[in-house]
Amino acid sequence: MKVFDNTTKKLLIASWVWINQAEVGKPHPTQLQNTNSHSRWDIFKPLRRWIDNIQVSDRQLAHRLCQMIPAQCPFERDIKLFNKTLLYIPPMCKLNPLYEEVVSLRFRALCYLADECGEDVSQYC
User: Fold this and answer.
1) Predicted TM-score of the model (pTM)
2) What is the residue-wise DSSP string for the chain?
3) Minimal CA–CA distance to 77: which of 65, 90, 66?
4) Could you count the other beta carbons within 10 Å of the beta carbon of residue 101?
5) Potential cystine with 73: which of 30, 40, 93, 101 (Cβ 3.0-4.6 Å)?
6) Contact status, residue 65 vs residue 101, Cβ threshold 8 Å
7) 49: how many CB neighbours lie within 10 A of its CB?
8) Rounded CA separation 82/87 (Å)
9) What are the angstrom distances between the C-alpha of 10 and each of 4, 7, 41?
10) Are 101 and 109 in contact (CB under 8 A)?
């Protein structure tokens, strides 16, 4: 006897959603608000813009960026004693106000090396 003989061949999931025709054309008030997580007085905005505008067009620069910017947070740790986890330190990199921009810069450098230069980037992963 095989397991798949006794299981459902096709699974159909249906869901009903009620749409009020009067409110279809109107945007929801929360859609009009700024959903940006940064505050109105962002002191890091010029630095964010500068990092976002860095064009990776040099092989040495791309290699240097991939070496300097780690693929994973270096602060995340499991403190173990006799194979039992005593303490877990979560990644602190996301507390960095420029985290997204730095990670995207590393990604652009990796893409440049892989797409434009045709190099193997597995050493940086």
Assistant:
1) 0.61
2) --GGGSS-S-----------GGGSSSPPHHHHS---SS-SS-TTHHHHHHHHT-----HHHHHHHHHHS-SS-TT-EEEEETTEEEEEE---GGGSTTHHHHHHHHHHHHHIIIIIS----GGG-
3) 90
4) 18
5) 93
6) no
7) 10
8) 13
9) 12, 9, 54
10) no
At residue 112, what is the residue type? Y
Q: Which two tokens stand for residue 63?
A: 């290699």
Between the alpha carbon of residue 37 and those of residues 46, 83, 87, 104, the distances in Å are 16, 39, 30, 17
